[in-house]
Amino acid sequence: MSHTEPEKIRNFAAAMDIIAIKQRILAGGSVTAEEAYSLIDPCQCAPEALREAAAEVTRAFSPRTFDSCSIVNARSGRCPEDCKWCAQSAHYSTGADSYPVVDHDTCMRLADHNRAMGIGRYSLVTSGRALSGRPFETILGYFRELAATGGMGLCASMGLLTTDQMRQLRLAGVTRYHCNLETAPSHFPTLCSTHTIADKIKAMEAASEAGLEICSGGIIGMGETMRQRVEFALELRRVKPVSIPINILCPIPGTPLESQPPLSDDEILDTVAVFRLIHPHAVLRFAGGRMRINPDTQRRALRIGINGAIMGDLLTTIGSQIRQDMQMARECGYETPSHDDSI
Predict the structure, then answer these.
(1) 137-156 exposure pattern, b = at least 16 Cβ within 10 A, e = fewer
(2) Do residues 111 and 152 make contact, with C-beta atoms less than 8 angstroms apart?
(3) Inter-residue contact 290 to 313 (CB < 8 Å)
(4) Which of 172, 253, 318, 323 has the maximal Cβ count within 10 Å?
(5) Of 141, 140, 72, nearest to 112 (Cα)?
(6) C-alpha to C-alpha distance for 145 and 130, rounded to whole angstroms
(7) What is the 8-class DSSP label of residue 189?
């Protein structure tokens, strides 16, 4: 036997393993934790095979209409939490805007714009551990008005709310609650000390109890290992998200992660592929930071798993333009809603 024969045998066995995993997912099954970790081991699964399996699962389960949403920074800055990636934390000097609650006219004007552009969902996002009191009541009023107007699904991201607050959001017309896990449980304590993964899961359980869908993802590129990204994806299965935003860290001057090196394109694509196999039916949503990767890599990501995006400007970093995102989605075979070309 030549010295290359053992390698050929290993590669063949690895290819058979990923085929078996893919076929089980396509038949309605799921990947085990052990299998999930094997997906990132090049001795057990070649990256090309991983991405091709993810592409097939995407074609099988993803709706052909690209899932779009837009977010509004409805309360900004002065957050008491010490999340090391965040420009809005009061612990860091970043120059981020600070205001109590976005004014009514701005909120409604942005909603009108996004509705006209064909955006599917509209989310109000607030800084701080949890929204409460008069600001919460003000936001509830905005949601009631937005629900009465219609035309877009409504989402909220307001921190660690109670079950009663979640019910009030649901009655006001909100159908989905967003709370990112952010990263793997083993990595999170190195990035934030003022709340825990358990606190986040409790809030999402409260949202589910109130009848809200769950949107939960996080940020990659915060110093975690690839194995921790798999751990992160597996942990998300606890909260059963219908939508998983995948942010790529955009280091913000003034935060402790301001000098964090960028991820390679291969790391990003492998992460998307793993998330798709672990969450075959969820919307994997490009969110912040994707402007740091080239358009070709973005298109490859859409092929192997990404089937949604947060469009327009984001919270404290600039997002890509809605028309550009819609065009890219169409180029990758997705359908997008019609929009008002005069906007």
Answers:
(1) ebbbebbeebbeeeebbbbb
(2) yes
(3) no
(4) 172
(5) 72
(6) 22
(7) G
* Tally of CA atoms within 13 A in the half-sphere of 321 that contains its CB: 4
151 in the Ramachandran plot: left (φ > 0), alpha (ψ -120 to 50) or beta? left
Q: Are 303 and 284 in contact (CB under 8 A)?
A: no
Measured from the Cβ of residue 233, the count of other Cβ atoms closer than 10 Å reads: 24
**DSSP string covering 286-317:** E-TTGGGS-HHHHHHHHHHTEEEEE-S--SSS
CA distances from 271 to 165, 185, 279 (A): 34, 17, 12
Over 244-258, what HEC string results?
Answer: EEEEECCCCCCCCCC
Contact 324, 310 (CB under 8 A): no
Which amino acid is it at 304?
A: I
Averages of pLDDT over runs of 10 residues in the chain (343 residues) are 51 70 97 95 90 97 94 90 94 88 94 92 95 96 98 97 98 98 98 97 98 98 98 97 96 96 96 98 93 91 96 54 88 81 51
156 residue type, one letter: A
Collapsed DSSP state (helix, strand, coil) of residue 119: coil
**3-class secondary-structure state, position 204:** helix
Give me 143's structure tokens.
């949601």
How many other β-carbons are positioned within 10 Å of the β-carbon of residue 216? Answer: 26
Length of the chain: 343
Are 210 and 166 in contact by the 8 Å Cβ rule? The answer is: yes
Task: Read off the DSSP letter of residue 260.
Answer: P
Q: Which residues contact 313 (CB under 8 A, 6 or more apart)?
A: 319
**Which of helix, strand or coil describes residue 110?**
helix
Rg (CA), the chain: 20
Whole-number pLDDT of residue 44: 86
